[in-house]
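Explain this protein:
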Amino acid sequence: MNLLKTFVIFLLCVLVFPVLAGDCELSTSGSGNLDYKSRGNRCEGIHPKLVGAYDIELISAVTTYHESFEKFPKKFKLQFCLPKRQRNVHAKVHELEAKHFYIMTDLDISWTQNCGSFVWSTETVIQSLSGLGIYDLGVLMRLKGTVPSIKEKIVPAVLYHQKLPSSINGYLFTFKTNRDAELEYYIRRGRTEIFKSSTPLLTRKNQPFQVRWDTQQRENGNYQLVLKGFFVSNGETIYQSVRFYHNSRTR
């Protein structure tokens, strides 16, 4: 059993940690110029990753804002706002469903007062990956730590390509479980529960699922999303906490 545990830890370190840590030279995709590597102001490309390593994992937190387009955008953009500028914002952009194994880390974020932003070219990698569009991507901006945790602290990002919205009306939190599960979720402001799921949420092994919260003009500040439930196969309990900062304005 100890040998098995050692082997699993080794796999996690080799296949997961380099991607999250932003080591741009460790791609093993064999895709040539599309490999995950340094692109100047970011690490971007194709990098296979281990699937189903965590019981539950937060993989994206973005606003519900959507833009349409006729011609594929030359640039994608993201922005987020905090009460004050923070140095330790760990950003990751990747596919919600791993079809191409696209990932981007080590973003050189630009700051205007307390809002961080980043712009990157789609011509370098994304346009070479058939079917990969802006809303196939997830964005995760961690404020604490670089690896998945049952207690996450994040700020949701606005993902867009042309016009930044003037206000934030809702969020989409995307998760995965490594086995079929049944969950309920609620959102708290301090100790007060302000939203709760009305029906159980059924998840499927390694399939992304989303929790949507329409902010309904809630005041700016810190909130907590909690998911609780169990795995269908054996009744083992699941818990996930996501503390996040909500700012209704984008400027």
